[in-house]
Amino acid sequence: MSRYSLDFRKKIVEAYEKGDTSIRKVAKRFLVSPDTVRRLVKQYRLTGDLSPRKCGTKKKSILSKHEEAVIDIVEAHPDLTLWQYSDKLRDKLGINVSTTMIDRFLKQHDISLKKNIQERKSSNRRSTESASRLLVKN
């Protein structure tokens, strides 16, 4: 949605400031919502300015401050899960981050987590062997 012009904003506030009408009547007259009139009047009273405010700014990630360290951890331990990365970051850097934040960071840096298939197969064999040993003993 486009912003209202400064001139239009002034007309709305001036119409309300005259004092002989309500917010709803001003809103109906200028074909805007009552909330718009309230917001413009409040902004004018607080700042004396009616220019549009900046739209939301993008917050920087906590991980961006530790970019090199995070990348080093990922390169040193490529087979960890996001949960394990979260634990490592808490232990090594003292920052608590969610798995979603880590995933977003990795995507922004074009890092994909490819697990080592050989490592998985060997760990599966170990668990299968130990399970079969348990069955034989009983």
Automatic annotation (TrEMBL):
<dbReference type="InterPro" id="IPR055247">
    <property type="entry name" value="InsJ-like_HTH"/>
</dbReference>
<feature type="region of interest" description="Disordered">
    <location>
        <begin position="119"/>
        <end position="138"/>
    </location>
</feature>
<dbReference type="InterPro" id="IPR036388">
    <property type="entry name" value="WH-like_DNA-bd_sf"/>
</dbReference>
<dbReference type="InterPro" id="IPR009057">
    <property type="entry name" value="Homeodomain-like_sf"/>
</dbReference>
<feature type="domain" description="Insertion element IS150 protein InsJ-like helix-turn-helix">
    <location>
        <begin position="8"/>
        <end position="54"/>
    </location>
</feature>
<feature type="compositionally biased region" description="Basic and acidic residues">
    <location>
        <begin position="119"/>
        <end position="128"/>
    </location>
</feature>
<dbReference type="Pfam" id="PF13518">
    <property type="entry name" value="HTH_28"/>
</dbReference>
<protein>
    <submittedName>
        <fullName>ISSoc4, transposase orfA</fullName>
    </submittedName>
</protein>
